[in-house]
Amino acid sequence: MSKLKRFFEEMTKEKAPGPSPTFTLFHLLHALELIAEKPIGRSKLAENLNVGEGTARTIIERMRNADLVTISKAGCALTPKGVRLWKEYKSVFQKRIEIEKSELAFADYNFAMLIKNRGNKVKSGVEQRDAAVMAGAKGATTMVFKEGRLTIPSVSGDVLKDFPRVANQIVRLLDPKANDVIIIGSAKSSTEAIYGTLAAAWTLLDDC
Fold first, then answer.
1. CA–CA separation, 161 vs 142, rounded Å?
2. Domain limits of the chain?
């Protein structure tokens, strides 16, 4: 996964003298996700990413140059290389669901993501919260599944007991296993909540 991390981070870097890119790593990841679902045109992609069509054009061009997508009348679709990277990404970032507002999901829009086998990477959860805020979210709550229980570092040793409504929803829909991480990203808009959740989850990847 460290190779995948470097690959996507390299794609967001400035390619030539001029203005800095108007998109982030998390726009690229969300674009990959949308294109993996079904072929999509530039206008629809821009709408879903909440960016202008010029930015969407640049994102598509970066992905095309990296041999991740092909472009046809049907829209953008993943290449075999794009499919391989998508499968590698999904092997760790397995599921994401929208959840209702609660004590742990405190904004108008809230997404919970399951990150496989990264519980040992979580310290206090502050790093994930800060990353989510930098990506435009209001915050993030990080949970680790260990010894058969959902826990929140320094907050709760048993989320099911302390926050039963949201914990039951998460366990039922995401089905975490030992050492899995659940991150809830919360924001005032759906796209900001998605980007905040992705940003928080991204901190759990290896740097080397």
1. 16
2. 2-88, 99-202
Gap between the Cα atoms of 145 and 20, Å rounded:
39
Question: pLDDT tens-digit profile of 109-132?
Answer: 999 999 999 999 999 999 999 999
Report pLDDT digits (tens) over 146-194.
999 999 999 999 999 999 999 999 999 999 999 999 999 999 999 999 9
Q: Please name the residues in contact with 168: beta carbons below 8 A apart, sequence gap of 6 or more.
A: 160
Instruction: Give the whole-angstrom CA distance, residue 126 versus residue 7.
Output: 26
CB burial of 30-47 (b: ≥16 within 10 Å; e: otherwise) equals bbbbbbbeebbebeebbe
Assign domain 2-88 to its CATH architecture.
Orthogonal Bundle (1.10)
Tell me: domain 99-202, CATH 3.40.50.150, correct?
no
**Which of 140, 130, 152 lies closest to 187, judged by CA?**
140
Mean pLDDT for the chain overall: 92
- pTM for the complete prediction? 0.91
